[in-house]
Amino acid sequence: MAAILSLSSSFKFVINDNTPRRQPKRASEFINNYDPVKQKTFKYVKTPNFQSNSSVRKTNLSHQMENFISYVERGFVDTAIQLFDEMDKTSTFVWNLAIRVLTNNGLFKEALDLYHQMLVQGVRADRFTFPFVIKACGGCLDLVKGQNVHSKLFTVGLDLDLHISNSLILMYAKCGYIDFAEKVFDEMPVRDLVSWNTMINGYILVNDGLRSLERVRGMQQHRIQPDRFTIVSALHASSLMCSLPKGKEVHTLVIKSELERNEMVQTSLIDMYGKCGGIRYAERVFNMNSRIHVAAWNTMIHGYALNGQPFESFSCFRKLQENGLKPDNVSLINLLPSCSQVGSLLRGKAIHAYIIRMGFLPHIVLETALIDMYGKCEEPGLAKLIFNQMHSRNLISHNTLISALGQNSQYRDSLKLFCDMWNDGFKPDAITVTAILPAYSELAHLREGKQIHGYAVKSGFCSNTFVLNSLTYMYSKCGDLVSARDVFDGNFLKDVTSWNTIIMAYAIHGCGEISVDLFSEMKKKGIRPNSSTFVSVLTSCSVSGMVEEGWNYFTEMKSEYGIDPCIEHYGCMLDLLGRVGDLSKAEELITKMPLEPTYRIWGSLLAASRKHKNVELAEYAAKQILPLEHDNTGLYVLLSNLYAETGRWEDVRRVKSIMESQRVTKTIGLTMVDVKGKTFKFTDQDRSHEQSHLIYHVLDIILQNPVGRLVKFKPVDFLRRKSKSADWHSVRLAVCFGLISTSIGTHVLVRKNVRICEDCHDVMKKISLVCRREIIVGDSKIYHHFEDGQCSCRDYW
DNA sequence: TTAGGGTTAG
Hints:
Blueprint: H1 2-6, H2 27-33, H3 48-52, H4 55-74, H5 77-86, H6 92-103, H7 108-120, H8 129-139, H9 143-156, H10 162-174, H11 178-187, H12 193-205, H13 209-221, H14 228-240, H15 244-256, H16 263-275, H17 279-288, H18 294-306, H19 310-322, H20 329-342, H21 345-357, H22 364-376, H23 380-389, H24 395-407, H25 411-423, H26 430-442, H27 446-458, H28 465-477, H29 481-489, H30 496-508, H31 512-524, H32 531-543, H33 547-561, H34 567-579, H35 583-592, H36 599-611, H37 615-625, H38 633-645, H39 649-661, E1 670-675, E2 678-683, H40 692-704, H41 730-741, E3 748-752, H42 758-771, E4 775-778, E5 783-787, E6 790-791
Parallel strand pairs: 3-4
Antiparallel strand pairs: 1-2, 1-3, 4-5, 5-6
This protein binds one DNA strand through helix 6, helix 8, helix 10, helix 12 and helix 14.
């Protein structure tokens, strides 16, 4: 737009009082400043004096009109509008051209403003005015304005005009009201090819491939020959349905209609085959045409990436150049996802350098593709850099960076960007919601997550499966399993991810049996499990100690579904063996697995060894972990605890000294609890809360009271307690504050940043028994539901 | 003067 508007930036013109007029920056500014009352009298206005005077003026008039039409046709918006300002505006024709130049150059709001000025000035709109005005309504996605114009058509008797009706169909479809579009189409007394094509394309705008193809069939039944636009839409419809058979049917129609040579049709065919998983067919169409154009090459590059063939994508890009063609922006945009697929930062950087060398930047889509690539190649810093250097940003570029930051665990940065985005006036869409929810999930910000849920409901995003899956995940990660289940049950278009998410939700809340039942239900409903499903199912078996079932699923994964176990699946099996104390089998599994053991694998063996007090095996696992260059804070703490539990105090001191020499500091324990819409944070031995005295007092009573006896308040001086006792761990303080701040009978939910210690775990069981309330504690790995003195983890975590 | 259009970022 800036380019178009700047074309007239050097243009200065003089009105009859010889006062140079300031060049408006935007057509809208010009139009908004335009005052029909104060307008100057221009040379060419037909006054009696002028009329009496000469053919010279008539020549000027036609010359001016010629210029005006030329500017309109060439899309010189500013110049055309400036000229329009000087012209005689009594004829509808002149207004139509001015509205046309604005509409056709994306200045929809300005076009509508001009249309209203036209009416104010008493100029009648005609059959040529309305298509532009309706197009402008569609461009603004303004249904109300569109309907107002539509109702006016009845009063002026143009409601059945062919061209106007065609415009109405598109306007309604663009606004998402396909039923209104259908009504216009069905009531048309005469339809032409454009009417059919617009209707067929309208369904695509609302993502309804099936009804689009049904209309194509209807059109043929009416003996109307499809043209290239029909075919392009029909191929798009097949892609929307991901249906190779439907796409092939349309290909037959291409042959019958003798449109195989059309470049647009060829590109659409390649695109359809790529999107429907038929990359070999795409190659065939591509290779059958010797004079192939850049768009077709670009579509092939994209097709290979979509079909998980990144190296073919790179090779295609190379061949494009070898064939003497010049890659364009789209070539690069399509190529970048292949770098992410192979995780090749080097290739990504090389392409970035090429993009800079070729002068392709700034380009908003290309920059967004770069942000995405850097995010997926684990370089969030570079993704941020690109974003900060962008000349202009849109909703998609924001969404891309939010996702990139989330993918790289930079949740706080992604939340900050989300806030900035609001402040910059970008309204989050369903994809923003999907992108930001993981940040609330991982930081366990239930209250804020609920607010996003409210926003999603209000904005109408809650029929979107991606949004619902993210909400299910958020609720489960934030400890609210009931809400997670409610969202899952309310999702009427459950996909494999929906099932994986709810199965995992029950697993991390220690309800393995329910998870396994859900897995059976999922299979009964015909949803094919994928690799992630088995991670969820094996985790469920692990949390509930279902050894036999675990092995069965581990085998079924390969035999029934052809899924090779990856490191995550082995990790789950190790957790399962560790839980039941079968350490020798766990060791054997590590030895026999065909993959290189990772931190996750040795960590699992270490945790199992600690649980079963096998110091030797724990030391062996720890030795394997140390060279893996991971954050080993947890490892040292775990080893130190094991030595302490087995009375090896010398080793405890040794580990402490290693930690000091390596400057490894124990993560500060922090527990959060939400009370009355506010989040309260507690550290160990925290006395900063204004109700500290009461919190410590209640906790003291609970700890001192024998289980089952009535709790009585007995004042004690809490300051005399030992300051470093586990009695005052943050989780206990947070739970106590939750107990005294919420109604009797309700559960108390707290979240911790590190694993719960064994002492606190026992205390939570006691609290649940003494207070007869459910206590839910989320630690860095799972949720513990304490009820009647028992924990859902069955004392293994 | 009027309606529909291929490959492209989350």
